[in-house]
Amino acid sequence: MVMAPGSRLPAPEVPDLVLLDAVELSWLIRRREITCVEVMETYLRHIDRLNPAVNAIVSRADEAGLIEQARQRDEELDRGDPTGWMHGFPIAVKDLSHANGFPTTMGSPIFADQVATTDDLHVRRMREAGAIVVGKTNVPEFGLGSHTFNPVFDTTLNAYDTTRSAGGSSGGAGAALALRMLPVADGSDFMGSLRNPAAWGNLVSLRPGFGRIPSEGFLSEPAVVGPMGRTVRDIAMLLSTMAGPDERAPLSIEQDPELFTGNLEHDFGGARIGWIGDFDGYLATEPGLLDLCTASFGAFAEIGCEVEPVSRRLPVEQAWETFLLWRAWTVGRKNAELHADPATRELLKPELIFEIEGYRRLTVDDIARALTGRDEWYAAVAGLFEDYDFLLAPSAQVFPFDAGQRWPQQIGDRSMDTYHRWMETVAPWTLSGLPIVNLPVGFSESGLPMGIQLIGRNHAEWPLLQLAHAYEQATDWTHRVLPPMLR
Fold this sequence. Notes:
Amidase signature (AS) enzymes; three-stranded mixed β-sheet; catalytic activity; Amidase; AS_sf; Amidase_dom
């Protein structure tokens, strides 16, 4: 049962084990200082206590079966046969992805009884690295909208203020990570779905570039899978598990993912970072949000970087129109059959109907404009890297909003004309296909978290993670400011 928004549990006795970073947990398991059974039992008790307050983890597996799997992991260690760095880790898979034996509801009553019979590639790779799937993480219906609520599992609430949204679509993963109910988590990102929940959960996440984590097909679609965690080292390790070429993915990058297990230390003295901000007032932002983002410049300066505003004019209005075409084309195409059947159409959320109707209006010329518009935007952004090594932009335009609200209708005196216009800050960078890390930048006066997008060059996830690590060493927001339920 979900607790009422704003309800507070008594301060729990938080187990030291769940406060460990994922890399530390892995090290202790491999050294046999803790058993996989002990890890599973501790995490399950912690989930049982805190999950009702935020409703992050859904479709929980049978406890006895999970303990038995953990016992098998211990037996593998006894034989000297560890399976990988995630050996014995409890994980919960985002409810847009398939995990064999678990429901993939996508938050829709249409698919409430759908049970996966296979693993998606990144899920299979996590299992092969030793992870044990304990359940799924909650999502908005069909993953649409950066606020996690649906008619199957209800609303996921923010770990720092349970009257507020946890973001989305990886909102369940974000809330679970913030409350230490999982060591690491998978997510996916079309329009900020890895970045927004991480920003609103005081977490780190990586939206990898196209091809880094394989997906089938010859078209680089805007949606990608990526890692979420509490430290840059943790998400780098999870990336090393999820990444790597696959024969079924012709655009996958032919690079050894072991790269991401290397030394993150690097000297960034003299690195130049371009600050995008709100595109010179083009984006509406909640008061105080940009101030928090620009306050991060001091930490970048501390590690030797120079941050300066980008003066070059970018065609951001055209990028938004191009993004809308891609959004309708990809989301609408995949779900058009549900709209064609009157029995399922009446079960669709308005946001999905908006995308499907947009798809049905598309012409061949519109699709051509989507392709050329994306090329033109990439060329404009690539030009910035002639002057800068990295770029910075806000991860959201508002702080976490009232969880009872569907989406922000207005920011200041500016009305939002679509259900996702309030997240426009992430759209141009999705369109670019460049790798992006969300980094925490602190909290509003009312204690609500915010984050910033650190954007790297094409296929340059590793230097991006190295700079993110250096920033993390200078700030350490995730460890410094725990959610109230953990204090």
